[in-house]
Amino acid sequence: MNYPIWDQPASGLIIAFISVFHVFISHFAVGGGLFLVLAERKARKSGDAELLDYTRRHTRFFMLVTLVLGAITGVAIWFAIGLVHPSGTSALINTFVWAWGMEWTFFLVEVAAAMVYYYGWDRLEAGTHEAVGWIYFIAAWVSMVIINGIISFQLTPGQWVTSRGFLDGLLNPTYWPSLVARTAVAIGLAGIYALLTNARSRDLAFKKRMARWAGLKWVLPMVVAIPLSLVWYLQSAIGAGILAGRIFGAGGESVGAVIASIFSGSSGSGYPILQNGATVCLAASAGAALLLLFIALIRPAGYGLSSAVGLLILGQLAFAGGEWVREDLRKPYVIGQYMFVNSVRLPAAQGAPGAPAGMEQYAADRFSLPELNKTGVLSASLWNRAPQGFDPLAGPDSSRTPEERADLEARAGELLFRQLCTACHTVDGYLALRPLVEGKSAAGLENVLDTLALPVDASGEPTGWDDPELRLKTRRGFRMPPFSGTAAEKRALSVWLARLGGDPLAGVETAPAASGPDGVMIFEENCAICHEPDSDLEIESLIEGYSEDQLYEAIGMLEELSDEMFPFEGTDEERRALAGHLAAFTGKEAE
Amino acid sequence: MDSLLSVIIPHPDPLPLSAPPALVWFLLLLTFFLHLLPMNFILGGSIISALLGRKKDVPREELRSFLAKAMPPMVAAAVSFGVAPLLLTQVLFGRLFFSSSVLMAWYWLSVIPILILAYYGTYLAAFKGQRLGRARPWVTGLVALLFMAIAFIYTNNMSLMLSPERFAELHGASAGGGELNLADPTLFPRWLHMVLGAVAVAGLVIAVHGARRLETSPESGRYAIKLGSHWFMAATVINIGSGCWWLVALPRELMLRFMGGSPVASGVLMLGIVLGIGSLVVVEGTRNDKAPMKRLMVGSGLLALTLVAMILARDQIRRGALAAAGYEIPAWVEPRWGQLTVFLLLLAGAAVTIIWMVRKLAAGKETN
User: Fold this and answer.
1) 8 Å CB contact between A180 and A232
2) In chain B, count of helices (H) and strands (E)?
3) CA geometry: angle at A113 spanning A107 and A116, to 5°?
4) Which residues in chain A are closer than 8 Å to B354, comparing Cβ atoms?
5) C-alpha angle A451-A454-A456 in degrees, rounded to nearest 5
6) Is there a contact between A495 and A358 (Cβ–Cβ < 8 Å)?
């Protein structure tokens, strides 16, 4: 809206691919630094010439990987987030510019120290060389210490939501477990990369020693430490209001339930892509642990490059799966409780400091959810205005024919799709919308858009979007932001979606039925989106044995039947008609 | 629909700036200057290296070796010092910078693979050197082309962000991130001016390197001085022409700012030209100088000051263009002095640490 949209299918995946690649190297850049300096120290202390020689060779590999691929892909993430989420990037920069500045100072030292360490093997005295190694490691680790604050802030902004405090944002609820987990990953990766360069060692006695040292002293302890820190991380995230249980499709909001759900496979609910990420992480970790034991215990002198590369790939997959889960836990936000993935902002939380006198114009937010609902996305957007004849407040020009009005709505709907949905969805590819809306009516889809996400408080009761303890109640636990825009825009988007789903005449108004409410249509508009035949929540099996009167009662208390359901908001007559239609499934219509 | 044909300037975030804009501006220009030194060396140095020809005499080989070995650390320095100005550009001008970046997204993102390739190319040349055999000119040539391509992409983005009146048209043409700022008449002279400036800087560095080598390796030293000075002078002379081309390609109102319309803009440009010509005269005098180091150092100092003046002139173009477009930096500022102080202290600490390490390395080289 405020920025042009980079019209690429699921552009967020570009960030994901670069990030997954980058983190695997950047964490190695931290742990590998510690490995180098400790290996050098060990070699010098014990007079181990082979180890010293190996460490020197490993330094060149380390420098070529971390300084080029590591540093440049780090810049690449920055480029990519600016292209995919300019609003979110801008907010992060405005909030944490000096944190990034501080991180940059350590980055400078890190890069310089890596160079001096490499070129200093023949030029520096042993003590000075080791000191440079320590400088490198400390700078690299502190760099991670700072960036970790910004990454964890995006998931759990904590007190920052109301205080806007720098340290409140950096030292947020998931900061410490995340830092411990990342440090453990960095140390473990150092061992994995060392096993890689050691695979080509010709001195078999040395190769065996190094495989045992790197495998058993560096990687193996982290195989234990990483899961423990992730448990702590999940616990902290749940404590901070992340509905991990619901997202994982677990039975409840506890770490135990989440872990049980990961091990027991899909429960039919929750967010499938995140669940797949967790499964990949788990399977790859198990595979990596087995391969590690094979290398370090069974074939320490005889393992080859293929085993080492296999371990590297499994480690990458495990790490990628874990990062994927973290990213998906954050959805539908790009910055928790501040901005959704489609750049729509929440209103400032109650208690958050506003702008001082005279500066109110800067704090007024035309891209906040309430403002967009009032004025319209296509009015606020600087780049995609409403098509001529479509008013974001009043809808299509009433002087046009029904067909023309529907066409206008569809065109406006497509623009709204670009603004509001393409951050995650494509039409036919990744998180494709077409299969989700196939055969759905515009009215039914409008109903869905109405209930994508509702604001609730920590106890699940309805609340305002500016509640500091805001939680999202989302449809079936999907990680969706609420629809933003006016009622006319909501209808326009649903018309476009219904056309996408195969109805070329969707949106064309027809004369209302002469008789009373039609139960079939009410079912179609309100229930079918989840309860259509052949779906996992098929209605027939759910209401088996219910009489029409019982169904009528049940429709009045949907929220009590399941917290996945939303209250029925039709008239009593419509409720009766729906009960009648449902009773036809059970064969227990009222006489 | 009408507004789509007008200037698009995104709205500021509902968040305050964390430091007074003047301070951010100062840090932006300072760090840009620090970025420019190694960046000019790698861009200009790679071009000179690629154009050294195929002859394999000792002076040429020594110069090739010097350039090849210096290149990877200088790329690291250019990237590292490039981070800060890019960050601070986003603080002050993010609304325009993000917009122009999205419009040319694929080109902008392609800087990354191009840079990775060029960076590995410099390592290949540094580590393998002569062992590359016939492939060496290809490697150095490719590296030069890649760096020139990066410069071209940057010039596109830095010029496009100054033209919010073009945003709507480009966005209408393609929202897929496939646009460049090719219709801007300042694009090519701007790029050429930057590339030639880089060649001049690298030429002078080569000349200074030659002067340092005079005692230990007179033949190579003299060759480097001569070659470096020639490149410096040729590039600087041509650059006067490209600078004029850039000036006349500017929108009329903007051009007039540099011709008396704005005392500051005219002053910094004039100062830059005078300093540039001054450095030219000083370096020209080294031709028959038996101890040219002193002159070359004076020339280098003048060239560094020329760079400062040209950075200020470039800033005046940005200010003028953005003022004409109606862009304003938000007045809502809530300085975080504590954070800023920590940052500056850490920066000072980083400088001390880096200087200590580099001095140790240099001293080690002498003893080994």
Assistant:
1) yes
2) 11, 0
3) 145
4) 108-109, 112
5) 150
6) no
pLDDT in tens, A272-318: 888 888 889 989 999 999 999 999 999 999 999 999 999 999 999 99
B133, B141, B152: which is closest to B46 by C-alpha? B141
| φ, ψ (nearest 5 deg) of residue A339 | -145, 135
- Give ipTM to 2 decimals: 0.94
End-to-end CA, chain B:
72
Which class for B337: exposed (0-12), middle (13-18), buried (19 or more C-beta within 10 A)?
Answer: exposed
Distance CA B304, CA B313 (A): 14
Contact B361, A116 (CB under 8 A): yes
Rounded to two decimals, the pTM is: 0.90
How far is Cα of residue B65 from the mean position of the Cα atoms in its chain?
23
* Nearest by Cα to A53 from A71, A37, A38, A40: A40
Q: Mark which residues 62-91 of B lie under 8 Å from A by CB.
A: 72-73, 76-77, 79-81, 83-84, 86-88, 90-91
B110 → chain A, closest CA residue? A76
Task: Output the pLDDT for position A267.
Answer: 61
Q: How confident is the model at residue A262 (pLDDT cuts 50, 70, 90)?
A: confident
Quick one: pLDDT at residue A308?
95
CA distance A45 to A41: 6
Under a CB-based contact definition with an 8 Å cutoff, are residues B104 and B180 in contact? Answer: yes
Give the pLDDT band of residue B368 (cuts 50, 70, 90): very low
Alpha-carbon distances, residue B146 vs A35, A304, B151 (angstroms): 34, 36, 9
- Give the residue, B198 or A575, on which the prediction is more confident: B198
Average pLDDT, chain A: 89
The three-state secondary structure class of A267 is coil
Tell me how far CA of residue A86 lies from CA of A152, A244, A481, A559, in angstroms.
Answer: 19, 27, 18, 38
- Find out whether B112 and A75 touch, Cβ atoms under 8 Å: yes
Q: Contact A69/A27 with Cβ under 8 angstroms?
A: no
Residues B152-166 have pLDDT tens digits of 999 999 999 999 999
Please give the structure tokens belonging to residue B172: 């209408």
Query: Helix, strand or coil for residue A368?
Result: strand
Q: Give the residue from B34, B98, B355 with the most A CB atoms within 10 Å of its CB, the best one to mutate.
A: B98
